[in-house]
Amino acid sequence: MSDRPAAPDRPRHPAAPDRPRRLARLVPQRVRGSVGLQRAMLLTGAGLTALLLLAALLAPWLAPWGHAQLQDGGALFGSRQPPGPGHPLGTTAGGYDVLARTLWGTRTAVAVIGLSLLLSVLPGTLLGLFSGYLGGWADRLLVGVADALYSFPSLLLAIVMSVVISGGRSSLVGGLTAAACSIALVFVPQYFRAVRAEVLRVKAEPFVEAARVIGTGHLRIMFRHVLRNSVRSLPLLLTLNAAESVLTLAGLGFLGFGIEPNSAAEWGYDLNRSVSDVTSGVWWTALAPGTATVLTVLGVTLLGESLNDLADPRLRRRRAPAASTSPTAAKEPTRA
After folding, report:
1. Which residues touch 99 (CB under 8 Å, ≥6 apart)?
2. Could you give the domains of the chain?
3. Predicted TM-score of the model (pTM)
């Protein structure tokens, strides 16, 4: 044996924090478990959705003009002006600034998305909860009404409800409320059917039967035990319906049943007015609102689809064996 003393261990730097590990704790485990194309979809969808929310929040400071502004200092902007220093994306056929209309349109889209989802998820969840738990003739009646509404084309139903609710009003509140309510009516049957199916499964679980045996009231069982275990799929449905609400809003505006241009900026209306411009070679009036609509729908859809994949336990089982076979584990030395 050699008499050479063993080399001392190198001291680690005491002030070096483990930043990657701390940041990893802030990210949910399912998100950190995403790999490859799934992670790319998740990051792309989250980035585009965050960009939409940021543009809607900062629209008053980012937009060079108002959404209904036609002049500056007494001088009109002009109709179909090409992109230039004063108007980076040009002007529309009505003389509005394209960039301003696009940025202000993000606020309209976010407001209609939030209001329509709020007006649809609350009644749909409550109706699905009571229908699935109580059953009987009320359950059969609600299922029949939901199936009847679900059988109508969503855009046609939204058009009818928009005409009925608006009643010829062109104000901002009336236009937003009519658009949101017409879109919400399309989504209520979806939440009703999703929650009802989960309630039918959960109410047969042993813990619900145990709560009934010890004398717990029906309202407490429904809201404390059944409801909290029946809404796990709603966040995924919310993201997918958010993308559908953007398309429905754009369809209403394109067909002339949306919000008036003087009340708020709306991408569907701008696309309707730019159809004749495209055939005349004026491409800039349709490029910005069309791109904004596509990116918004793409971002929300990718976010919803990636979250749906992460919530699927079958995909997590497929990744588990691959993650366990690491190079260090394969080269583990055997003891003599």
Report:
1. 63, 64, 87, 88, 89, 288
2. 57-311 (1.10.3720.10)
3. 0.76
